[in-house]
Amino acid sequence: xxxxxxxxxxxxxxxxxxxxxxxxxxxxxxxxxxxxxxxxxxxxxxxxxxxxxxxxxxxxxxxxxxxxxxxxxxxxxxxxxxxxxxxxxxxxxxxxxxxxxxxxxxxxxxxxxxxxxxxxxxxxxxxx
Length: 128
Known about the structure:
This protein is mainly beta. It is built from no helices and eleven strands.
């Protein structure tokens, strides 16, 4: 079993930055990929970015490229989402998720169905 605990959300003005953290409790993480998703009110949960734990390779949605960076710290079992140049459209609940079968796939997953474990979510609000 894997447990994910997110932190770091909050209220920020447009153009500002936030860093989200996701502590991962579990074993065998080198086989996993970790993703960040977000869900705005009235909208479906959408993929933001993901990282393969074993080699650090990443995948991101076009709307955050150049602004958001995902990384992982093996020693701390923690995944980070550094968000810069935030826009009001980034306002959402952000979720950390784990794909335990990433080693069987050549590409990182950008849809919820591949991610078995989810955190509780953390609110990010960007004011204009």
